[in-house]
Design brief:
alpha/beta, 5-stranded mixed beta sheet, 11 helices, globular, Peroxisomal Thiolase, Chain A, domain 1
Length: 363
Amino acid sequence: MPASAASHLRPVGILGIGTYLPPSIRTNDWWPTDVVERWRAGLAKKFGSMPSRESAPRGAQMVLDAMATLRDDPFQGARTRHVLEPGVPVSTMEVAAGRQALARADVRPDKIDLLICYCNVPDYLTVPNAPVVHQKLELPEACISFDVESACNSFATQMELAWRMIGSSAANYALLVQSNAVRAFCKTEDPFSAWFGDGATAVVVGPVSRDRGLLGTAHLTDGSCHDGLVGRSGPGEWHQGRVELSVKSKASVRKMLLEIPRMGDSLITRALSMAGMDRREIDFFACHQGTVWLRSVVAEYAGIESAKSFDCFPETTSLSAANIPYVLSVADSTGLLDDGDCVATYSGGSGITSSSLVLRWGR
């Protein structure tokens, strides 16, 4: 959104965040020893095929260095993850997170007139989860409800849409819901089966005072990496059998990883420019938790490593689009975030899309 357009919008910010993690916790010893040893052998082979560090740009060098520190860890920094019990609908997590968010925001369900959900494993194929979340939370019939699909970047997309609608008075309060259950598409023998956990978050967004809320956003789309880590069944059409998560193009995954620092720095710079702020003013950095090293590498490359932050990957692994709301919720509840703090975010999702948000925390 151009800065000139944003100046005409009323201030919009986060009023409350809800989270839900299933009570069942899976530790690393759940995976058979022979499977883990195959992962370990695969790591050695993978690092042997990585591009030369000396010829790589600085950002790519930082990624390669960070990855090298984990070359002997088949779990890549993950220790635990929460697991949804078989037969429990994913929408159950979304409703629980939404109910908590409404309570923490002190906003009644009948005040919500915009519901935007993201679910990578909806209860039913081709049917969005938004309607069932709407029903179970008893939101108004006139509430506009739909799902978005920006993979791990969906929260930023939701925030942009909510800012435009609430800021222009087309809506007053929005409930943004994010969930992850992609672990269900992972085979036990695949190493990335250990990198995803189940969970959901929800964010209530609404009008705030003039010096609070969203101040700047920046977005990027690069379709050249569309075929990296994908859900499909075999080499053909995805709907010919059981959907499984797999790497279709190693080159796309490699490019996506090596470009993370540069993309993060560029997007944070653009969002700060729109907000009329300097990176030295960032008090807290909330980053996507796709890997254990992602946040620290982006922060260093972007020159914001002095900002407060929080990593959840070792305990929750990746929660997809729920990563950043979960980080913000923990930071707020533990005192890492103070009223008036300037928050910058960075997230990226398969496809790929990436975004940065800059906001002033509080109401």
